[in-house]
């Protein structure tokens, strides 16, 4: 007799069941059961298909100048005001609407001053959210709360976080909303990499997030480069599989020479990845006390005595899940050593100015996790290590600012890898569904966000943790 299967599993795997769920009636029933098929997300270096609507409050020009620098054409917004409404057949007022679908709304609120200004945001968002295409985008640009001296705009800027998170939750069809906080002197050149990342499919699984782009000197050609890593060497730990392999491939696509690092036991898989992208492999257990020195020596040996690393991506990580009641010192130490202590040691060695170490103007990227941000049953060791990465980013970014080195992290939610394939089916399905995009992310979604953070054009992005979680309900 065949084993009894979970109904969720049947829907997830059977073509017939998927077809039923895709019919209008099936969709409505499935939506009520919470099992409607997840929207397919636009990915890669692709802009929205429909027009990009640019709406600016008062005399805000930062978004307009940024889009012009990127060569992205824009159209004017439809704004819902009492005067713009018509009377429908039922006698009820009908809001103004776009003629067809729109690809994105970029909303510049940098001139926000008083509570009444927010009416403009509502008036622009109402028609836009109805018209947004699948995988469309809302990008809100506003000044960072702490960049204001006056009380009212400072408070309002924080309020936009609630607006953005709500828009992200209400949008459907894989569309996302994110909020970019800027400083008064952030230039279009410094903002360009962020706006382009958010409009493109590269940010597919980044939703409901807000982070800061500070003022930084970025040249026009750096701001608009499509292969920003050309001529730069980047080290990626844990590159043999999963997210690390995707990071290596994505950085190579964008021009990087990749040094892929993984344990000797994964040597074959590592070789396959680096050969494909013309990088070099370094078989190394990163918990060795001299791991940082060995990475620098590899760079000097392979690329010459003048060579320096442009960036290091600390991706290698492990889990040893146990409830605290069962957690012994071995499982505790293993996770803290790989996920945290090794990183601290490698950074120290790579930052001491040695041959093959990190160059000034370079970048460090770590990987946190929603488990670290929210805590997670059975992961006391892992959550501690991943929350510490948030601490590392915040502490190191100001210390390295004078050397022009950015320090950031991504916070992946549920990403489909071998690590998460080990989670029992039902729990996995629940994780996959517990976010605004109703699906797990792909390794490439994390990789694209890391490539954006370490991009030389993102010099104004430092000390930030960008969650790649589809607006996961965990840790909100
Ligand atoms: N998959 C997810 O949903 C998820 C969510 C949040 C965070 N993360 C984090 O993303 C990173 C990558 O996760 P993944 O799912 O791709 O994991 P994975 O287990 O598929 O890959 C991790 C890689 O790191 C390597 N590695 C482990 N210990 C090492 C060591 N001591 N020295 C060198 N290499 C070592 C492994 O050999 C492996 O190739 C990890 O830091 C993980 O904690 C993953």
Describe this structure in words.
- A hairpin with a 5-residue loop joins strand 3 and strand 4.
- The protein has two domains: 162 residues, Rossmann fold, CATH 3.40.50; 242 residues, NAD(P)-binding Rossmann-like Domain (Rossmann fold, 3-Layer(aba) Sandwich).
- The chain is built from 17 helices and 15 strands.
- With 476 residues, it is α/β, with parallel strands linked by helices.
- The N terminus is likely disordered.
- The two termini are 44 Å apart.
Number of strands: 15
- What's the architecture of the largest domain, going by CATH? 3-Layer(aba) Sandwich
Sheet with the most strands, sense and barrel status: 7 strands, parallel
Alpha-carbon distance between the two ends: 44 Å
- Say what the CATH topology of the largest domain is: Rossmann fold
> Pairing-aware structural class of the strands and helices?
alpha/beta
CATH homologous superfamily grouping of the largest domain: NAD(P)-binding Rossmann-like Domain
CATH class of the largest domain: Alpha Beta
- Count of structural domains: 2
Strand order of the largest sheet: 11-10-9-12-13-14-15
Specify Rg, calculated over alpha carbons. 23 Å
